[in-house]
Specification:
The structure is a single chain. The chain has four helices and five strands, in the order E-H-H-H-E-E-H-E-E. It is of the alpha+beta class and 183 residues long. It has a domain of 120 residues: Molybdopterin cofactor biosynthesis C (MoaC) domain (Alpha-Beta Plaits, 2-Layer Sandwich). A five-stranded antiparallel beta sheet has the order 2-3-1-4-5. Helix 2 packs antiparallel against helix 4. The longest helix is centred in the last third of the chain and has 19 residues.
Amino acid sequence: MKSQGSTEFTHLDDRGQVRLVDVGDKPVTRRQATALGSIYLGDKIYPLLMSDQLEKGDAFAAARLAGIMAVKNTANLIPLCHPLPLTGIEIDFIPQPEQKSLAIKARVRTQAQTGVEMEALVGVAVAALTIYDMCKAIDRRMVIEDIMLIDKSGGKSGVYQRPGEDKGRIQLDPESRRVGDGT
């Protein structure tokens, strides 16, 4: 196992061949990861999405379910990810009215021998793609951007927290209202 910041790839054997890392000797620990991304919607789509006036229906419900399904299927999409027993998945949408965009946050939890960073990233990406799909008939100029790992905990490498200034154009106010969750 290589430490965080190592320049060697753990998914290559001593001959340089790709392999799935053996995590069998690692202890089962509680792990969690949070990813964040955004989709720029623009002046036409933003008000329609925020007021639930899309012809295709509830974009937030569709994107939340798509994100959850993607998290559960990450090992089928990313070849060297281990299938994991997931204990929790949350997909949240945070309006960014000044930017006419939507921030998307995924938090994933497990008790396993490896982390869930890729699962959180895949959840954000697929939720954003679903918003794009639900809105593309109105305007195809949407932009999905700034998909990143925000934090992770658990395992040998411990805690990672992305510095606040390193979150791109996404502005997350702790008082931001979540949308699409019935509140």
